[in-house]
Design brief:
About 70% of the residues lie in helices and about 5% in strands. With about 400 residues, it is mostly helical. Strand 3 and strand 4 form a beta hairpin. It starts with a helix and ends with a helix. About 25% of the residues are buried.
Length: about 400
């Protein structure tokens, strides 16, 4: 329903704010790109739902459980086999979807720069990480649920919370370099401007890096990684190619605003609270006979409860997602304001937003309902108008 409304909105004209970056040809291309992605997404979701229903009705989960139990391992190892068998099947479904999206849709609109070799290596590395990181984490979760009684959810909440915090250090220092090269930004006007701005804002950074985003896509972005004294600024090489120094500085000032306004810590706290709520509710559904009957299962298990509860929790997750997205959009507006206020470059920031939108073929007219439910960032048009409202001189 939401996607159909969004498709209808693609017929709208170019907003006046975008007319200098979206000529007729570019705007039509953006409409076609968003339409093709939306239609493909609808098809994938429909097929996914049909396959899931058939899998449940035909006893697919029970067959996987019998396979996992056939090895006669303990409940922990059996649970790992069961859950990773499901992950493997989901991966088999998503692989052709990813191939089509990358090598047809993204290629068609000039975004894809991913070679077949890079695509294969990315998937193999991702699989290795899912095993290397996922298996120990899942083992701890299953151990707690199987052996620590009614307060297992509380122990797991503490463990996962610590894991989430640890990942803020592990991801930028260990995981991300497995996929991309991070080269220190060369000396020059851009580096000097960033360092000078950070110094004026009393913001300590560990380094400024250029990432080879062009290895996979012509789309551009910038972000900060790490926490505490390990914060790094990362710029896509494609972003540096397409933007002026003043525009890049306003983009980085926006990202810095998230840290200065404590958005990163607030979002981490929200995520931890949501995890606690999920685990608390889950504790009431462990080995629930009705839940296992619904999925045609012969045997009650903790690991099965984890999987099936995920489906049951979906409506709550959707509701929390809407609330989380609303907060995230508010944070984005606040970071925009921080950027413009501290750089005193409202026009440069607006120019950067417009270029990012046009270069990435963003939908300039998303339906308000889709924005409300799914968008964690406000539409670019809303951000531009918000800046103009606060800085009428632009």
């Amino acid at each position: 329903m939401i996607e159909l409304l969004n498709l209808k909105n693609l017929k709208l004209k170019v907003p006046p704010e975008f007319q200098d970056v979206y000529d007729t040809e570019k705007f039509n291309q953006a409409q076609q790109y968003n339409r093709e992605n939306t239609v493909f997404g609808i098809i994938v979701s429909t097929v996914e739902t049909i396959l899931l229903i058939l899998f449940i009705v035909l006893g697919g989960f029970n067959l996987i459980d019998k396979f996992a139990r056939s090895f006669n391992f303990n409940e922990i190892i059996t649970g790992i086999i069961f859950i990773y068998s499901i992950i493997f099947l989901v991966g088999l479904f998503k692989l052709p979807v990813s191939i089509y999206s990358t090598f047809h849709i993204e290629q068609k609109y000039g975004f894809n720069r991913t070679s077949v070799k890079t695509f294969i290596l990315d998937n193999l590395k991702s699989l290795a990480l899912i095993i290397i990181i996922g298996v120990p984490v899942l083992s701890v979760v299953l151990l707690f649920f199987n052996y620590t009684g009614n307060f297992a959810w509380l122990y797991i909440w503490g463990f996962i919370s610590l894991f989430q915090i640890a990942m803020l250090y592990i991801a930028p220092n260990i995981i991300m370099p497995l996929f991309n090269k991070f080269i220190p930004l060369e000396e020059g006007e851009l580096k000097y401007s960033i360092e000078n701005y950070a110094r004026n804002q009393n913001f300590k950074i560990k380094g400024i890096f250029k990432m080879d985003g062009s290895k996979r896509s012509s789309k551009s972005n910038a972000f900060f990684t790490g926490i505490g004294n390990s914060i790094r600024i990362v710029l896509f090489d494609t972003l540096i190619e397409k933007h002026s120094t003043s525009e890049l500085l306003t983009v980085l000032a926006h990202e810095m605003g998230h840290f200065k306004l404590k958005h990163i810590y607030k979002q981490l706290a929200i995520s931890i609270l949501e995890t606690g709520l999920l685990l608390f509710i889950l504790s009431f559904f462990l080995k629930n006979p009705q839940l296992f009957d619904a999925f045609k299962m012969d045997h009650l298990s903790i690991y099965g409860s984890l999987v099936f509860f995920g489906f049951l929790y979906s409506p709550i997750s959707e509701f929390l997602g809407i609330a989380s997205n609303y907060i995230s959009r508010r944070f984005e507006f606040q970071a925009d304001h921080y950027s413009v206020k501290t750089t005193q470059e409202p026009q440069s920031f607006i120019n950067a937003l417009k270029k990012l939108g046009a270069d990435n073929l963003s939908n300039p007219n998303p339906h308000p309902l889709k924005v409300f439910i799914e968008y964690c960032h406000p539409p670019i048009l809303a951000r531009i108008r918000n800046v103009k409202n606060n800085y009428p001189q632009v």
